[in-house]
## 1
Amino acid sequence: MNVERFEAMGCEIVVSGAEPAAVAAVFEEWEAAFSLFRPDSELSRVNRSTGSVVAVSPLFARTLQVALDVAAETDGLVDPTLCGRWGEVRLAGRVLSRFPGVALDLNGVVKSLAVDASAELISDEGFVSAGGDIAVRGPVDVALPHGGAIRVVEGGVATSGTASRGQHLVDPRTGEPSDSPWEQVTASGSSCLAADVAAKVAFLLGADGPAWLDDREIAGRFVARDGAIVESAAWRGALACT
Amino acid sequence: MANDSRIDRARARARSAKAVIASGTLLIFGVAFVGAKIHAPGHPKGKPKPLGAPQSFKRAVKQSIAQGGVVQPAIQPPPVGTATS
């Protein structure tokens, strides 16, 4: 399997089965629109806007709609406002309205959506990974944190946690860095977005994370701070079936 | 009698003029109404479509948000790994 690597969105992109330049162009388009570190990005312009109503691009509108749907599905655990005010954000077509001063941060969905968009460029079989958030076309074996590997047959897989850059996941319920007992949570999903959301929510829910995945029959693997491994029922079932 | 006749003729002319003005007004209003229905941008000829993402896209995203993927035991050395980023 021919694998290409490059940097984008502040992480390593690994591509197989698609033209790297085309994938890089997709990531550049998403980064140009949603980077919080580029003053000329559309997200930065929206956040700087002092008006309560702003017209946004079609890509921005679609992405924000996904972020709001994710917030609703997760009861605000993945929140595009990071402060529990996602319910006040309104989107009608391409017209965004919110209270001035309510800043948006779409990082919770942008990277995984860019991975899913890039995976559309895979001609036959392959994968796209952005910092370990992966979408596959055809079966791909994926190494897991703390050893081991799984074969992702369909959809994607993602890992959330504190191991890479310290306590970087903020719990919107408290506004503080999460005190989850988990160091990392890996989850599968029907897409990279679904996997990323499942991993984040399962991580933030702490001890209730495995039950949240079990309720939705999502395969997930938890690594506790002491190194202990906990697997969701779907994970155990999938890996025991052969 | 001559005065009555002149008044009658004047009244007849006034009635005719009122009828012409009323008919003209109705005709102009009718033409403008139909023209506005056909041409004015504020009068859509078809069912309006929302400007945002299609409903099918929104449904697909909503349905897929909390759906697991398909995983199996690995059988080859993995070319890529999942990790926090």
## 2
Amino acid sequence: MIRLLATTVFGLGLAVLLPGAAVHAQAQRAPGGDEPALPAGLEESPKPKGEPNLPAGLEESPGGEPDLPTGLEGPTATRPAKKEPNKPVSFLDAMKDLGFSGFVEARGGVRTQRDHYEDQASIGEARLQLEWERVFKDVRFKVTGDVVYDQVDPERGHVDLVKGTGWFDLREAWTSFSPVSWMDVKLGRQVLTWGTGNLLFVNDLFPKDWQSFFVGRDLEYLKAPSDALKLSVFSGLADVDLVYVPRANPSRFISGRRISYYSSMLGRRAGQDAVIRTEDRDEWFDDSEWAGRISRKLGSYELAAYGYWGFWKTPEGFDPLRNLATYPRLNAYGGSIRGPLPRGIVRVEGAYYDSSQDRQGDRPFVRNSEVRLLAGYETDLPEIAPELNLDVQYYVELMCHYDEYVRSLPAGVPARDRGRHVVTIGLTKKLMNQNLTVGLFSYYSPTDGDAYLRPKVAYKIDDHWTVEVGGNVFFGRSRHTFFAQFARDTNVYASVRYGF
Amino acid sequence: MKANKDLLIVLVAAAGLAVVAVALAQSDTKPAAEPSVDEIVKRANLVAYYQGADGRARVKMTIVDQQGRTRQRELTILRWDAPSPEAAKKGFDAKKADQHAGEQKFYVYFHKPADVDKMAFLVWKHLTKDDDRWLYLPNIDLVKRIAGGEKRTSFVGSDFFYEDISGRRIDDDTHELIETTDKYYVLKNTPKDPRSVEFSYYKMWIHKKTFLVVKTVYYDKNDKAYRQYEAKAVKQIQGYYTVVKSRMTALLTGRYTDLEYSSVKYDLNLPEDIFTERYLRRPPTKHLQDE
């Protein structure tokens, strides 16, 4: 009685004090009566006073209390056996059941200025990616292949699976299994990633595709595949990964074929008129690469040590007699730590790049040894806006033998600074229930005085269709520094994708 | 003498009545058989997030917007519970329900839609600090660490928040029992740190028999209800009452998300090492599927 009175008074009080709330509550159900029906499955069976059971979900309770959900209504109120009508299985669902998925995409982009050495269009492609993944008796298989028609690619007829040219790109073709419980093996063409940088790589010396990155392909294409054997051993003490690449997999670098660059040999910007020719490291087993990582967790922190024995991923050497760019030997040793700080994730990574064919640093046509350091922090900014994310990084490449480098530099070639410092700022905001993503990722080098901006807007129309527009904007005060050399490649692009 | 005797009877009767009256008065505010608020909260939390020592469910998520357009997500969730701090001290007994109400680990594997297919999400839920979260993007083999601080943001674009999926810490709110009905304990929960959340309080209807939360309504600072959770269907699975259908509604827009759980299974003896980077890169297929 007292309780009832209290409820009524409370309800009245609410109604008087908060007319808005009361009206709203009425729209839902009477105040004090917004109690839920018990869901199906929670209903008590023998009703007092023998009242009949209302159908599941409709149970009205005294005082307008919530109905029990189906399932709480006791044994008598079992749900009618609702038989799902046999829905016709769509072709795509049937494909998915067989392990197939993928997307179809059209992507077009243009330079926003003229470039004497390249086409006006930066990308103009239609792409079908088909992916197949299955597990048979604990052995997993995956194959991913892209069929591409790119109007801008002058080599679209010539398929090269390592360089990634041509109308077919095999992205994955691997099998993985565990011969013993503490070991994983992954063998075949695979995409490999480790390290802590965001669009900057220190200890990740697996191949990249800078060309795809700069013309505005999906981020997935920044990582080029490796033909590798990966062995992973797990123990309570630490996890060890070992990667063997029997024939070197270089990065898909900027060669001038579709992106112009600064040629220090010519002393000017160059493009299709001076496509960089390379002496490839393509001898099986002789030109092999090894990479390793030892990692473990310490509380919430992840520690890792890395090693790499192979070649510079981009042609950082030059053979002046044959006028060929070369891939000098490179060993790298580094470490990283990543973990939570109040409000965000911090990461620090460093590596020593031992350019073993130029240990003294006095060979003019081989890149110097370097120390590379990275520190980054990522956080959400709910105070400014919901679903706004900020990522900042500081990155530096320090030449180890700068005096020797300057002394041996060929005449006329602009000298680099001892250190190349880069700051990156990434801002991502999600809107419209995460269907719209607006992002800007910027690289800025205070030492080179150049910058690279990557604005992007992507909208998911529904569960299949996505549209995207973005840009790759390069600028700087000199023409030879890393980002500034691409100033005439600045482009905008748009894409539409159907995923299945 | 007789008069004295009568007086005595009257006195005894009066005293008896007084005792009964006091007892009644007490029982009206706090019935002797009813559990305390803390007990209700604790048990509801156990039922909602800690049933069994571990579990698996396939979840179908349907997001329906104001215009009636739908988006779907499908994912599989694996859950592993660590012994609760008290149980760890006193000696762990896996059979007791409250023995593992401590830290938890979640592994979420996405099946649909296409843009998140095969992605994996790992959460280590902590009691006294921010959760650790990792996301694995299979196309680029990237294990990304995600800041675990923002819990009241949408989980994969749905009306459910991260915190609705993995549970809100009991100690983050003060709890009042504002009503007890035939079926429900009605609780009002007020955040201790109002700046950390978007609601000013929320009410929960907890089913008395099972301690399942049947409905939750969130109110803003004008006491206006703006967000509502409802359990739509419950099933008893391996003896555990389990919500197999629920809905979260954004009351101001009418947008809502339905969750449907299928192939729910408890006490699978999931190995703890599933919840590591190894299995982000290599999905634990055997444990993700219904045998």
